Amino acid sequence: MPVWTRRQFTALSGAVGAAALTSPAWAEEASQVVEIDLRRETGKLDHIWSRVMGSDRAAITMREPWRKDLERFKNEAGLKRVRFHGIFNDEMGVGANGNFQNVNAVYDGLLDRGVQPFVELSFMPQALASGTKKFGFYRADVSPPRSMEKWSELVEKFVRHLVQRYGASEVRQWYFEAWNEPNLTSWFWGGTQEQYFELYKASARSVKAVDPSIRIGGPATSAIQWIPQFLEYCEKTGTPVDFVSTHIYPGDDQAMIFGKADRYREYDVVPAGVALARKQIDATRFKGAELWLNEWSSDSPAMIAHAITQSLPHCHAMGQWQISGEYEENMVANWVFKEGQNGWGMLARGSVAKPEFNTYKLLNRLSDRRLAVKGPALASTMDGGKFAALVWNLADVQQAPGIPGASRERKVTGTRKAMLVRVRGAQAGQRVQVSYVDQERGSPYPAWRAMGSPQYPTREQMDAIRKSAELAAPELKTLNGRGEIILDLPPEGVALVEAV
Description:
This protein is of the alpha/beta class and 500 residues long. Helix content is 27%, strand content 26%. α3 runs parallel beside α5 and α8 (266-282) packs parallel to α9. It is globular.
């Protein structure tokens, strides 16, 4: 989650020439050329976007609606792992001695659906806590442990139980990290940086005591913080680090991250932060370690595609937060949809697809064989001359500090574009199908607004909204003699072009 200032839902200053989500002011028509070269494969296309995604907390994963959302992400978007807080929360009943009844229910629920956990060791059982600092609607204790020895015993007992239940070969495929965003002392951590490093060391040694092949990493910080200090500490103390994890959001404090305010447009903040983290890691003896950006977010389809594409050279995984509208970190929302406020969850309550979810559905239709492109596109090829190319119209989406979608303030600056897509190496007359996602297509908002924007849609209304939010049947087009088609894309829009 982002820093406190980003949770204050006030508008960003200096937003010029922008319009609200409900009535975007598009400039006059502009064209752009995108080229896909079927003759040039450029290597493997890693699906870094589906290796992990985030969610609320462990206890909520036992709810049937959440599990239905997980199934959708697995089956439609190719999700491999899910990360959430609070496996040791008191509501889980783990306690100081390790009651793993609900832990079993949580992880069984994931594995039964073909998804592995990305295990976050958090938060502190009250029986082990050194203080009373609490976080969130579910009142998690975020104090350091009263006894590091007792914490170590709990972690080791927990990991040993997982190996006994699921087998060493399975658990060796998982990833473990210690805590969540310990740099946010107003939210997730009641201790110091040094105390967090000690907690990490104790956790890592406990995990490795069970099986040296099980992976653990950190520091799981917000805003790309503490990475050099964390790695220096681990090197000096001989503490194992199998990967580095951190978070960043488009509205994070750029002065804190990059040393200068407003250095980047919001759509470039995430890839710039990923590149910075990669540079910091590679300046240490941990050079080449996997980088897991296991929290980031955008509610703009084109920004999602852009951030992922620009981050491909630098990180192993990008986990958007979060998958489901079953979310209660700060409160139980008293609405399903809200004007100008997309809210959290790429699937809204009731498993309603939002543009973010549908963007990941399109990304999942790419193969792992990357093609050369020019312009805003990510393309792949398959056997038999088939190809798929995601094309987008990037817009500057300015939002209040906070997780995208968490505030009514949302201003879009961009132009509607007639995008000429040229497929080099394609045969004249090649038939293609085109699927679109933007704030109107593959979106629940038009249908919801047409109903009068109800706070609590009826069951019948929810059924209608759910159907309207699904991807429409693809549009069939034919490449001209130059291998070209024209796509009409609004600001933020994406389109998947597939050979048929």
